[in-house]
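User: Please fill in residues for this 191-position structure.
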């Protein structure tokens, strides 16, 4: 299967075929629109002139990587910080998974094990890890036993909670409407 997010087709192709690019996109998915976060690994690849490996990113000069992230348009709202986090993530992939990010899910015993592996990565908290488990299961057919339960509410069928449920502009609009409702409810609950 392949992702069909409402982003550049080349970005979808990269994310569908590169576990490292998908990990980086998910890492970048904070304080920027989904399209920016999930399109940035493709832009990074274009700027470098090739698809980077985890080892290459892990060993990249930190200031040079920050410059690549900061080049206009910047790859993230906080390009220097996210370049550093991307480098930390790449180092973890090299150290724990011999440089191949796909081993994180391909070698997972079950859904809870996959969730644990993801939460151990730099920049990945429980929600981010659950969303990636859901995305892998719903859109890329990575479905170890217990994946839906490990994904929590994000694994629910027919939901519109996260990028795991986005397959086109209409589903992205539904996810954004759901998030807007949550924010309004939270604002109404404040004293």
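Assistant: Residues filled in for all 191 positions:
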């Amino acid at each position: 299967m392949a992702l069909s997010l409402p982003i550049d087709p080349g970005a979808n192709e990269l994310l569908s075929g590169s576990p490292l690019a998908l990990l980086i996109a998910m890492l970048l998915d904070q304080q920027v629109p989904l399209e920016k976060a999930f399109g940035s690994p493709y832009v990074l690849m274009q700027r470098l002139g090739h698809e980077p490996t985890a080892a290459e990113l892990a060993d990249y000069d930190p200031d040079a990587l920050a410059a690549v992230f900061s080049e206009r348009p910047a790859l993230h709202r906080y390009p220097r910080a996210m370049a550093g986090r991307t480098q930390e993530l790449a180092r973890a992939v090299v150290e724990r998974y011999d440089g191949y990010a796909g081993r994180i899910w391909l070698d997972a015993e079950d859904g809870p094990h996959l969730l644990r592996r993801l939460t151990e990565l730099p920049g990945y908290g429980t929600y981010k890890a659950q969303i990636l488990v859901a995305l892998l299961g719903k859109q890329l057919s990575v479905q170890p036993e217990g994946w839906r339960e490990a994904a929590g509410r994000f694994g629910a069928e027919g939901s519109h909670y996260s990028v795991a449920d986005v397959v086109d502009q209409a589903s992205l609009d539904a996810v954004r409407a759901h998030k807007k409702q949550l924010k309004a409810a939270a604002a109404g609950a404040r004293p």
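For context: The CA atoms of residues 6 and 170 lie 9 Å apart.
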